[in-house]
Amino acid sequence: MASDAALSKQRVVVEAVRLADREGVGGLSMRRLAGALGAGAMSLYYYVASKEELLDAMIDVVFEEIELPPEETDWQSAMRRRAVSARQVLARHPWAIGLMESRTSPGPANLRHREAVTACLRRAGFPVLMATHANWLLDSYVYGFALQEASLPFDTADEFADMAEDVFLPQLPPDEFPYLNESAAVLAAAGYDPVEEFTFGLDLVLAALESLRVPT
Protein backbone atom coordinates (compact mmCIF):
# COMPACT_ATOMS: atom_id res chain seq x y z
CA MET A 1 0.00 0.00 0.00
CA ALA A 2 1.32 3.38 -0.97
CA SER A 3 1.43 6.23 1.48
CA ASP A 4 -0.37 9.51 0.89
CA ALA A 5 3.05 11.15 0.59
CA ALA A 6 3.67 9.17 -2.60
CA LEU A 7 0.62 10.64 -4.32
CA SER A 8 0.56 13.30 -7.02
CA LYS A 9 -2.22 14.68 -9.18
CA GLN A 10 -0.83 12.81 -12.18
CA ARG A 11 -0.83 9.51 -10.31
CA VAL A 12 -4.36 10.08 -9.03
CA VAL A 13 -5.65 10.85 -12.54
CA VAL A 14 -3.78 7.97 -14.21
CA GLU A 15 -5.16 5.51 -11.67
CA ALA A 16 -8.67 6.92 -12.18
CA VAL A 17 -8.35 6.33 -15.93
CA ARG A 18 -7.17 2.76 -15.31
CA LEU A 19 -10.09 2.13 -13.00
CA ALA A 20 -12.56 3.53 -15.51
CA ASP A 21 -10.99 1.47 -18.30
CA ARG A 22 -11.56 -1.69 -16.27
CA GLU A 23 -14.96 -1.02 -14.75
CA GLY A 24 -16.49 2.01 -16.43
CA VAL A 25 -16.87 5.51 -15.10
CA GLY A 26 -20.03 4.54 -13.25
CA GLY A 27 -17.96 2.53 -10.80
CA LEU A 28 -15.56 5.37 -10.14
CA SER A 29 -15.79 7.04 -6.76
CA MET A 30 -13.27 8.91 -4.67
CA ARG A 31 -13.42 6.17 -2.05
CA ARG A 32 -12.88 3.44 -4.66
CA LEU A 33 -10.02 5.40 -6.21
CA ALA A 34 -8.40 5.95 -2.83
CA GLY A 35 -8.56 2.22 -2.21
CA ALA A 36 -6.83 1.48 -5.52
CA LEU A 37 -4.11 3.97 -4.59
CA GLY A 38 -3.75 2.69 -1.04
CA ALA A 39 -4.47 6.16 0.31
CA GLY A 40 -7.01 7.87 2.50
CA ALA A 41 -10.10 9.05 0.62
CA MET A 42 -9.85 12.60 1.98
CA SER A 43 -6.24 12.90 0.85
CA LEU A 44 -7.34 12.82 -2.80
CA TYR A 45 -9.09 16.16 -2.40
CA TYR A 46 -5.68 17.79 -2.02
CA TYR A 47 -5.07 16.99 -5.70
CA VAL A 48 -8.58 17.20 -7.18
CA ALA A 49 -11.23 19.32 -5.49
CA SER A 50 -14.19 17.25 -6.71
CA LYS A 51 -15.18 14.33 -8.88
CA GLU A 52 -16.03 16.79 -11.68
CA GLU A 53 -12.49 18.15 -11.59
CA LEU A 54 -11.23 14.58 -11.68
CA LEU A 55 -13.37 13.84 -14.75
CA ASP A 56 -12.04 16.98 -16.45
CA ALA A 57 -8.49 15.75 -15.88
CA MET A 58 -9.34 12.23 -17.07
CA ILE A 59 -10.87 13.52 -20.29
CA ASP A 60 -7.77 15.64 -20.80
CA VAL A 61 -5.69 12.44 -20.67
CA VAL A 62 -7.90 11.00 -23.42
CA PHE A 63 -7.52 14.10 -25.61
CA GLU A 64 -3.76 14.00 -25.06
CA GLU A 65 -3.67 10.51 -26.61
CA ILE A 66 -5.51 11.54 -29.80
CA GLU A 67 -3.23 12.54 -32.67
CA LEU A 68 -3.58 16.16 -33.71
CA PRO A 69 -4.31 16.74 -37.40
CA PRO A 70 -0.86 17.18 -38.99
CA GLU A 71 -0.15 20.49 -40.69
CA GLU A 72 2.08 19.11 -43.45
CA THR A 73 -0.68 17.37 -45.42
CA ASP A 74 -4.02 18.16 -47.07
CA TRP A 75 -7.03 18.71 -44.84
CA GLN A 76 -8.76 15.42 -45.67
CA SER A 77 -5.69 13.34 -44.88
CA ALA A 78 -5.13 15.34 -41.69
CA MET A 79 -8.70 14.92 -40.47
CA ARG A 80 -8.71 11.25 -41.45
CA ARG A 81 -5.62 10.60 -39.32
CA ARG A 82 -7.14 12.48 -36.42
CA ALA A 83 -10.44 10.58 -36.73
CA VAL A 84 -8.73 7.18 -36.95
CA SER A 85 -6.63 8.05 -33.91
CA ALA A 86 -9.70 9.20 -31.96
CA ARG A 87 -11.48 5.94 -32.72
CA GLN A 88 -8.49 3.92 -31.50
CA VAL A 89 -8.22 5.97 -28.32
CA LEU A 90 -11.94 5.64 -27.57
CA ALA A 91 -11.69 1.89 -28.07
CA ARG A 92 -9.16 1.91 -25.21
CA HIS A 93 -11.30 4.25 -23.10
CA PRO A 94 -14.95 3.54 -24.02
CA TRP A 95 -16.16 5.20 -20.80
CA ALA A 96 -15.02 8.54 -22.25
CA ILE A 97 -17.31 8.51 -25.31
CA GLY A 98 -20.24 10.12 -23.53
CA LEU A 99 -18.06 12.65 -21.69
CA MET A 100 -15.92 14.12 -24.48
CA GLU A 101 -18.29 17.02 -25.12
CA SER A 102 -19.65 17.44 -21.61
CA ARG A 103 -16.80 19.27 -19.91
CA THR A 104 -17.32 22.96 -19.11
CA SER A 105 -13.80 23.38 -17.72
CA PRO A 106 -11.67 21.78 -20.46
CA GLY A 107 -8.03 21.05 -19.75
CA PRO A 108 -5.04 22.14 -21.84
CA ALA A 109 -4.91 19.02 -24.03
CA ASN A 110 -8.62 19.33 -24.73
CA LEU A 111 -8.21 22.96 -25.81
CA ARG A 112 -5.08 22.26 -27.87
CA HIS A 113 -6.93 19.52 -29.70
CA ARG A 114 -9.93 21.68 -30.50
CA GLU A 115 -7.71 24.55 -31.62
CA ALA A 116 -5.76 22.25 -33.95
CA VAL A 117 -8.93 20.80 -35.49
CA THR A 118 -10.46 24.23 -36.01
CA ALA A 119 -7.20 25.57 -37.46
CA CYS A 120 -7.01 22.66 -39.91
CA LEU A 121 -10.51 23.32 -41.19
CA ARG A 122 -10.13 27.10 -41.34
CA ARG A 123 -6.80 26.91 -43.20
CA ALA A 124 -8.43 24.52 -45.67
CA GLY A 125 -10.92 27.23 -46.62
CA PHE A 126 -13.95 26.45 -44.47
CA PRO A 127 -15.61 29.64 -43.23
CA VAL A 128 -16.20 29.81 -39.47
CA LEU A 129 -19.78 28.52 -39.58
CA MET A 130 -18.99 25.79 -42.09
CA ALA A 131 -15.92 24.72 -40.08
CA THR A 132 -18.21 24.40 -37.08
CA HIS A 133 -20.65 22.28 -39.09
CA ALA A 134 -17.78 20.08 -40.28
CA ASN A 135 -16.39 19.68 -36.78
CA TRP A 136 -19.77 18.67 -35.37
CA LEU A 137 -20.37 16.20 -38.19
CA LEU A 138 -16.96 14.56 -37.88
CA ASP A 139 -17.14 14.29 -34.10
CA SER A 140 -20.68 12.91 -34.25
CA TYR A 141 -19.53 10.26 -36.69
CA VAL A 142 -16.48 9.27 -34.64
CA TYR A 143 -18.32 9.19 -31.30
CA GLY A 144 -21.32 7.40 -32.75
CA PHE A 145 -19.19 4.75 -34.42
CA ALA A 146 -17.10 4.27 -31.28
CA LEU A 147 -20.25 3.85 -29.19
CA GLN A 148 -21.71 1.32 -31.62
CA GLU A 149 -18.41 -0.53 -31.93
CA ALA A 150 -18.05 -0.81 -28.16
CA SER A 151 -21.37 -2.68 -27.97
CA LEU A 152 -20.76 -5.19 -30.78
CA PRO A 153 -20.71 -8.87 -29.73
CA PHE A 154 -17.69 -9.55 -31.97
CA ASP A 155 -14.29 -7.95 -32.52
CA THR A 156 -12.84 -9.54 -35.65
CA ALA A 157 -13.89 -10.74 -39.10
CA ASP A 158 -13.48 -14.37 -37.96
CA GLU A 159 -15.69 -13.79 -34.93
CA PHE A 160 -18.29 -12.11 -37.12
CA ALA A 161 -18.25 -15.04 -39.56
CA ASP A 162 -18.68 -17.53 -36.72
CA MET A 163 -21.59 -15.56 -35.26
CA ALA A 164 -23.21 -15.13 -38.67
CA GLU A 165 -23.14 -18.87 -39.27
CA ASP A 166 -23.87 -20.12 -35.76
CA VAL A 167 -26.04 -17.37 -34.27
CA PHE A 168 -27.55 -15.07 -36.88
CA LEU A 169 -28.43 -17.45 -39.73
CA PRO A 170 -30.44 -19.87 -37.54
CA GLN A 171 -32.61 -16.91 -36.53
CA LEU A 172 -33.16 -15.82 -40.14
CA PRO A 173 -35.19 -18.42 -42.03
CA PRO A 174 -34.94 -17.50 -45.74
CA ASP A 175 -38.69 -17.74 -46.35
CA GLU A 176 -39.32 -15.07 -43.69
CA PHE A 177 -36.18 -12.92 -43.90
CA PRO A 178 -34.78 -13.52 -47.39
CA TYR A 179 -32.60 -10.40 -47.60
CA LEU A 180 -31.19 -10.67 -44.08
CA ASN A 181 -30.47 -14.35 -44.61
CA GLU A 182 -28.72 -13.61 -47.89
CA SER A 183 -26.68 -10.78 -46.37
CA ALA A 184 -25.51 -12.85 -43.40
CA ALA A 185 -24.51 -15.78 -45.62
CA VAL A 186 -22.71 -13.67 -48.22
CA LEU A 187 -20.85 -11.53 -45.72
CA ALA A 188 -19.71 -14.52 -43.70
CA ALA A 189 -18.48 -16.31 -46.83
CA ALA A 190 -16.71 -13.19 -48.10
CA GLY A 191 -14.72 -12.64 -44.92
CA TYR A 192 -16.47 -9.33 -44.27
CA ASP A 193 -14.64 -7.25 -41.69
CA PRO A 194 -16.79 -4.72 -39.76
CA VAL A 195 -13.63 -2.77 -38.92
CA GLU A 196 -13.58 -1.46 -42.51
CA GLU A 197 -16.91 0.30 -42.00
CA PHE A 198 -15.25 3.15 -40.15
CA THR A 199 -13.02 4.31 -42.99
CA PHE A 200 -15.78 3.68 -45.56
CA GLY A 201 -18.14 6.07 -43.76
CA LEU A 202 -15.39 8.52 -42.87
CA ASP A 203 -14.32 8.88 -46.50
CA LEU A 204 -17.92 9.59 -47.51
CA VAL A 205 -18.19 12.32 -44.86
CA LEU A 206 -14.90 13.93 -45.90
CA ALA A 207 -15.83 13.81 -49.59
CA ALA A 208 -19.16 15.49 -48.88
CA LEU A 209 -17.48 18.24 -46.85
CA GLU A 210 -14.97 18.95 -49.63
CA SER A 211 -17.66 20.62 -51.73
CA LEU A 212 -18.50 23.04 -48.91
CA ARG A 213 -15.13 24.72 -48.48
CA VAL A 214 -13.69 27.72 -50.30
CA PRO A 215 -10.29 26.61 -51.65
CA THR A 216 -7.42 28.84 -50.53
Automatic annotation (TrEMBL):
<keyword id="KW-0805">Transcription regulation</keyword>
<dbReference type="Pfam" id="PF00440">
    <property type="entry name" value="TetR_N"/>
</dbReference>
<dbReference type="InterPro" id="IPR004111">
    <property type="entry name" value="Repressor_TetR_C"/>
</dbReference>
<dbReference type="InterPro" id="IPR050109">
    <property type="entry name" value="HTH-type_TetR-like_transc_reg"/>
</dbReference>
<keyword id="KW-0678">Repressor</keyword>
<dbReference type="GO" id="GO:0046677">
    <property type="term" value="P:response to antibiotic"/>
</dbReference>
<keyword id="KW-0238">DNA-binding</keyword>
<feature type="DNA-binding region" description="H-T-H motif">
    <location>
        <begin position="29"/>
        <end position="48"/>
    </location>
</feature>
<keyword id="KW-0804">Transcription</keyword>
<dbReference type="Pfam" id="PF02909">
    <property type="entry name" value="TetR_C_1"/>
</dbReference>
<dbReference type="GO" id="GO:0003700">
    <property type="term" value="F:DNA-binding transcription factor activity"/>
</dbReference>
<dbReference type="GO" id="GO:0000976">
    <property type="term" value="F:transcription cis-regulatory region binding"/>
</dbReference>
<dbReference type="InterPro" id="IPR003012">
    <property type="entry name" value="Tet_transcr_reg_TetR"/>
</dbReference>
<protein>
    <submittedName>
        <fullName>AcrR family transcriptional regulator</fullName>
    </submittedName>
</protein>
<feature type="domain" description="HTH tetR-type">
    <location>
        <begin position="6"/>
        <end position="66"/>
    </location>
</feature>
<dbReference type="InterPro" id="IPR001647">
    <property type="entry name" value="HTH_TetR"/>
</dbReference>
<dbReference type="InterPro" id="IPR036271">
    <property type="entry name" value="Tet_transcr_reg_TetR-rel_C_sf"/>
</dbReference>
<dbReference type="InterPro" id="IPR009057">
    <property type="entry name" value="Homeodomain-like_sf"/>
</dbReference>
<dbReference type="GO" id="GO:0045892">
    <property type="term" value="P:negative regulation of DNA-templated transcription"/>
</dbReference>
